[in-house]
Each structure stands twice: as structure tokens, then as C-alpha cells.
Amino acid sequence: MFNGLIELPWWGYVLATLGLTHITIASVTIFLHRAQAHRALDLHPIVSHFFRFWLWLTTGMVTKEWVAIHRKHHAKVETEEDPHSPQVLGIGKVMREGAELYRAAAADESIMEKYGKGTPDDWLERHVYSRHAVLGVSLLLIAYVAAFGAIGLTMWAVHMLWIPFWAAGVINGLGHYLGYRNFEPRDSSTNLTPIAILIGGEELHNNHHAFPSSARFSLKRWEFDIGWMYIRMMQAVGLAKVKKVAPRPVIDMKKNQIDLDTVRAVVVARLHVLSQYARNVMLPVLREELAKADGSCRAGLKKARRLLLRDDSRITPKARQDIEQVLEQSKPLHVVYEYRKRLQDVWNRNYSSQEKLTQALQEWCHQAEATGVKALQDFVKSLRGFTLAPAPAAA
Q1: pLDDT in tens, 68-119
Q2: Cα–Cα distance measured from residue 98 to residue 161, given in angstroms and rounded to the nearest whole number
Q3: Higher pLDDT, 293 or 84
């Protein structure tokens, strides 16, 4: 019995641990995050209860607590009220004390009341999963030791540390501190890797913050969201129903007029619009200015490159001074930077009707074309053909 009921080679124990912890990761990303916190999909009751049971067994987390804390994170992101912002609390604290920050937020009843609505509240949740959280992980310990013997203690310990490290530490910490960004939402979220396997797709954190209610996190061709793969597999056999995915804009070159369809696509997929504007307008103009700048100007342009693409809400006073200094030296860059702000103003303002909004976007296009900046003129041409592709979940 010291060796347990199952004997494996050393690599077998490693694979068993990785496999079991991966089920926990899948439970977090599919059930807690996408289905419960953001209502991006509905799960069959059997699947939903399996995830609840597995999370109780392997983490002791309470559904309402996790959901409430995550919803508040989105509502108050990068502010003093964010439960775990590395921009506010420091990356070291979030990485080292992510689990403690979670427990502190979970103890706040006001957070539970305001942000925890709509989570499971049946007899099992009230009398077992919420009330006896420690019982689950204790049963897991017994199961590990019975199955694998003494090594089961180590496997259980790894399982206990898996979510606190990867979710509370890496995603909540590094996912708002370093990595690449496809979009510029009003926070510092990043994608940590284009191949999101270890954390079930959660590494694609910038994509998620750009489109929080999307059941799918991968948005670029090279990105792989294994959580989405599992959802599609369950959907194929009737165990899941996807409610919403991120918009997929396409350019219809046959369209040459701004109409209501264009306006709807631009507003719904505005982060896509800004991403294309940065890639097709800002960066080409910046490269042109770098090519003809002298040494001192070139250094300033390179320094301001990231700042020029950043959302205004994330610009510090010092960074704003750096941007203004660069824009004073480059008229073309100043023009495209200002027109990006004007474009954002179009969808940020409150218009009395869709017709007024359409007119505002048409006027922006006319004025942008009149600037004579080729990159901006080309962008206007593509913007007129902007439309939304059918949602992949409906396929």
C-alpha cells in the first residue's frame, strides 16, 4: 500500500499530475470564467455539476466568490478597487501573494453581494461546496495517497499550488505586466504566449479584456485556445451552447459608402478598428518619419512608439509630455495621431440617432481623406468596407 494502487514510472507520475491539474485548469476557464463570470456560454447541467464538484475537490474554491472577485476585477480594473492589480499593488505582491489577495476579497461581503449574483445556489452549494471547502481537498489528498502511495503527497501538493501559482500569480500578475498586446483596451492586460495550453487559454489575457463576454479567447491565426477547443467539442455533442464570441470584422471591397451596417461593425469591433489603425496608419507613418529623422529625433520617435499606440486613459502626465514633444517634430505623425482621437470621439459620443452617428463617421472619413496622408486615405477606403463576419459559434 506504500506504493498505492497504481504504480507508474517516474514520468508516469509527472504525466498523471499534469493531466489532473489540466482538468482543474479546464474547469476554471470553462465553468468559472467563461460560463459563470461572463455568461459567454451555457453548459449542460451534468457538465456544469462535474466542474463544480471537481473544483470543490481540487481547489476548495467557492463559485460565487471566484465569480464576484473576477467581475469586480473587470469593473474596477487597474484602480485602487481592483482586487489584484500589479499596476497598483506591484507585480511582486501579486505574484507572491495572489492567493492571499483572493482570500481578502472573498471575505468582503459587499463584493459577494454586488458581483456574485446568478451563481449556483442549490442545496449542494449551500450545504456542501460552500460550507465544507476543506473537505474536498482533504478527500483529494486521501485519493492521491491511496492511488499513488507516498508520491501522492507530492502530487497533491503540486495540485494545491497549481491554481494559486498560474491563475492568482501568473495571470493576475504577469497578465497585466508583460507580454504582447493585440488590442488597446483601457487596462494593461497582455497575452503571455500565442500557444495557450498550460492555462487553458487564459494566457490570452489581452484578448479577453478586449472582449470579456467572448467564449473564445484566441483571435489571431497563430493563437491556440485549448479551452475553446473543449467548448467546441462539447457543443458538437450538445453539452454546451455558445452565446457570444468576439466580433470578426472583414473588409468588403465592393462597399464604398458608410452605411448603418458599417457603423454597427465599427462600433461593435472598435478595438479591431483601432488595432488596424495602429498597424496600417500609425506604424507606417512612424517608419517614414524614422527613415528621414536625424539622430536625436530618431531616438525620441523610438521612445514614443509604444506611447503613441496606447489608449489615452493609460497615458501618464510624463508620457503625455514625451508624446507632445514628438508630435511637434512631425506633422504627419501629429495628423494621424489626432485623427485616431477624433475617430474614438465618433463612437464615444452620445448621438440622438443612428443617422447622426452615420453622418459623424462619414464626416470623419471625408476630413481624413482631405489630409493627403496616403496611409490615412487607404485606411478610409478599407473602413468603408468594414462589416462583421458571421460568428463562428453559429457555424
Answers
A1: 999 999 999 999 999 999 989 999 999 888 889 999 999 999 999 999 999 9
A2: 11
A3: 84
Residue 293's Cβ-count burial label (10 Å; 0-12, 13-18, 19+) is middle
3-state secondary structure (DSSP) of residue 242: strand
Reading phi first (left if > 0) and then psi (alpha if -120 to 50, else beta), residue 307 is in alpha
pLDDT, one tens digit per residue, over 134-191 is 999 999 999 999 999 999 999 999 999 998 888 888 899 999 998 999 999 989 999 9
Interacting residues of 116 by C-beta distance below 8 A, sequence separation 6+: 64, 65, 67, 68, 71
Cross-strand pairs, 386: 251
Distance from C-alpha of 202 to C-alpha of 206, rounded to nearest angstrom: 10
- Chain centroid, CA 65 distance in Å: 20
One-letter amino acid of 69? I
Helices 10-26 + 45-58 axis angle, to 10: 120
d(CA 55, CA 63): 9
C-alpha cell at 72: 469586480
